[in-house]
Write a structure and sequence with these properties.
The chain is α/β, with parallel strands linked by helices. The protein is 34% helix and 11% strand. The chain has eight helices and six strands, in the order H-H-E-H-E-H-H-E-E-H-E-H-E-H. The strands form two sheets. Strands 3-2-5-6 form a four-stranded parallel β-sheet. The protein has a two-stranded antiparallel ribbon with strand order 1-4. Helix 7 links the parallel strand 5 and strand 6. The two termini are 32 Å apart.
């Protein structure tokens, strides 16, 4: 695992790469490679969320759990897939909610969310890698320690961020966030299994923008082109 991390993130998280859990995680990923396992996303995209959204540019955090485990889907951004790949059902539901939440929003023809990342939306998965075809196969190997620390550092060193937490897993991270300094938006997950239980009409995107504007920040243009 070659680590190329955007400088502002490296300044904040450098010491994590020297801790025993990260050494063990690197050994695990190396063992996967030696065993001939296909791992997603590709090495260059493992830290994509960090490299697309520098630490000091983060405005919104959308927390996912695991990268997609199908061919050519995952590219390091939560809920996002590469262009040319079928849009996952959860993202279709996110687009449906956007269409009722943001006036004029038009459903995109693809599921690549890089445009959000470039505007300051940190699309962070709790686990940054996965074995092909095996959901959750790289959970509890060390990634969650790293991404928990990421959330904690954002909470500690920044102010006025929006954390969008969909589902019980994402909401389990609430203790890492100082709610006197940041705004948490939570609902059920947009998965087809839970979407009917409170995702529709939750308006996370307009709520996020309203809060950002209150903080004197430019709102996110949620339209994907």
């Amino acid at each position: 695992m070659a680590i190329t991390l955007e400088p502002s993130w490296l300044a904040v998280l450098k010491e994590e790469f020297e801790k025993p859990y990260m050494t063990n995680l690197k050994k695990f990923l190396q063992s996967e490679k030696e065993a001939g396992q296909v791992v997603y996303p590709k090495n260059a995209d493992i830290f994509r969320a960090f490299n697309d959204t520098p630490f000091d540019k983060v405005k919104v955090v959308i927390l996912g759990q695991d990268p997609y485990h199908g061919p050519n889907q995952a590219h390091g951004l939560s809920f996002s897939v590469q262009k040319g790949i079928a849009i996952p059902k959860s993202l279709i539901n996110i687009y449906k909610e956007l269409a009722t939440d943001i006036p004029g929003f038009i459903k995109p023809a693809h599921g690549n969310l890089e445009e959000w990342a470039k505007q300051g939306v940190l699309l962070l998965n709790a686990t940054l890698t996965v074995r092909a075809g095996e959901a959750a196969s790289h959970q509890k190997k060390g990634w969650e320690i790293f991404t928990d620390e990421t959330i904690h550092r954002l909470s500690e060193k920044r102010t006025g961020l929006v954390f969008i937490l969909w589902g019980a897993y994402a909401q389990s991270k609430i203790p890492l966030i100082d709610q006197t300094k940041h705004y948490i938006i939570k609902s059920v997950h947009p998965s087809p299994l839970s979407v009917e239980r409170g995702f529709w009409g939750s308006k996370p995107f307009s709520k996020a923008n309203a809060y950002l504007e209150e903080q004197g920040e430019k709102p996110i243009d949620w339209q994907i082109h």
